[in-house]
Amino acid sequence: MELNLAEVIQAQKDYFHTGATLSVKKRKQKLKELYQEIKNNLYALHEGLRLDLGKSETESYMCETGLTLSELSYMLKHIKRLAKRKKVSTPLAHMVSKSYRLPSPYGTVLIMNPWNYPVLLSLEPLIDAIAAGNTVILKLSEYSPHSNQAIKNIIEHVFPKEYVTVLFGGFQMNSELLKYQFDYIFFTGSKRVGKIVYEHAAHCLTPVTLELGGKSPCIVDETANIKLAAKRIVWGKFLNLGQTCVAPDYIFCSEKIHDELLKELIRQIQIQFGSHPLTNPSYGKIINEKHFHRLLQLLDSKKIVYGGATEEATLKIEPTILDRVEYTDAVMQEEIFGPILPILTYQSEAEMIQYIKEKDAPLALYIFSSNKNRIQKITTEVGFGGGCINDVVIHLATPYMPFGGFGASGIGSYHGKVGFETFSHYKSILKKSTRIDLPMRYQPYKKRNKALIKTFLH
Ligand code: NAD
Question: Distance (Å, rounded) from C-alpha 260 to C-alpha 258?
Fold first, then answer.
């Protein structure tokens, strides 16, 4: 049956306008049902992730379904408080009145997500949007069909279509959808498509969140615990074969510890993935041929010091280290989004900071160091979305801190309380008493009132 987008969107708008999503009790009930349905369908979700990305069950739970359940648990625990009006102070000039901010849903939200964490990156914003009282059109990436089907089955079991509609499709579906007026757009994907979404949103004056990517640097200085740094970097870089928006894109290390770090990185790859990663069942695969071939172009054989083997039939690329990489190399011109780890070295802190500052603000920045002054300097002077000190990636795995980019890596953020706020408009409301009515604001203006106004407003 031909899908009529106009009808789908209108049905959601009509449903929203019935006020059906405003009851916090109902929202909570729906989130509870979603929690249960995800739990009942863990096998189907994990199987989808295995088929799409070769993810192991442990990784799927740790990085996708487990984090989704954790966001749901947070919302179930806090939704009542989050949805309450927030009392705020009132200036003396407005006596006798009360002021409050009333969280209100936007209406019909469009969520578009990428393929690299298809479960987490679709359900997490969905949870926040539903908690805030919106209806959702959820557009899943065309590259992860197996995970998509499992997600769709879950959603359709919990929500009627007019509350949440799941759509599949790529460029064409996005372009069609963007012709319509939504009340909020939440997009996760590349900078390139983010700009297109932003342009369309501007045309309709639709508020947006853009969760984009970028080249996230990983700084390792001479005061770092090198063994632990290597262990954590190898885990975070090769997780999901580097197809992680906050993966350390490249290492920027002090020349002084370069040799030791390289040795430890190689040792850690062998410990974590074995000597034949391509046959390791817990090591995933590149999403499709297009990305596989894009990554092959970045494998500069002159600079490979470890790994480099590839297998087209299974779309696998070994954890690969490129050493002595220069700013001008191809691998430094785009977000890698694959299991290729370039190492650059710096002679001076100033040179390293300058280089990062001159580039687009990254989504994440990591520093392995025990030098407090340096950590302070970099975290305050350099612009980036978020990050870790002495670790990688895990700053996004918490409902207690918002996650989002900065500058070219995105606009806005979500997760937990901030996720609820992202999908809410806060109406500022002042409630005035009818018992007292001060005369000084009314015309005709009088001289003695002018002085009185100045005592309130100065
Ligand atoms: P993408 O931007 O290429 O694709 C996103 C979606 O947009 C896809 O469904 C695609 O079909 C569609 N699309 C492609 N061209 C389009 C066009 N011209 N008009 C409208 N829609 C179009 O991103 P991707 O390859 O799915 O994901 C990889 C990117 O996403 C990386 O840059 C990564 O860093 C970023 N990412 C960011 C986060 C985050 O939370 N900040 C998370 C994951 C991925």
Answer: 6
Name the catalytic one among 59, 63, 124, 245. 245
Please answer whether residues 229 and 261 qualify as being in contact, where contact means their C-beta atoms are separated by less than 8 angstroms. yes
Distance CA 14, CA 160 (A): 13
168 forms beta bridges with 140
CB 146: neighbour CB atoms within 10 A?
17
pLDDT digits (tens, 9 = 90+) for 216-241: 999 999 999 999 999 999 999 999 99
Structural domains for the chain: 5-212+410-426 (3.40.605.10), 217-404 (3.40.309.10)
| 66 neighbors 46 (Cβ within 8 angstroms) | no
Concerning whether 312 is annotated as a catalytic residue, the answer is no
Residues with CB under 6 A from ligand 1: 112, 114-116, 121, 141-142, 170-171, 174-175, 188-190, 193, 196, 211-213, 245, 335, 337, 363, 405, 410
Q: How far is the CA of 190 from the centre of ligand 1 (A)?
A: 4
Do residues 100 and 87 make contact, with C-beta atoms less than 8 angstroms apart?
A: yes
pLDDT attached to residue 440: 87
Of 53, 174, 241, best ligand 1 pocket probe by most atoms within 8 Å of the beta carbon: 174
Please name the residue whose Cα sits nearest to atom 23 of ligand 1: 189
| CA 452 – CA 144 distance, rounded (Å) | 66
Q: State yes or no: is 253 an active-site residue.
A: no
pTM of the predicted structure, to 2 decimals:
0.96
Q: What is the pLDDT of residues 172-220, one digit of tens each?
A: 999 999 999 999 999 999 999 999 999 999 999 999 999 999 999 999 9
Contact criterion met (CB below 8 Å) for 180 and 5: yes
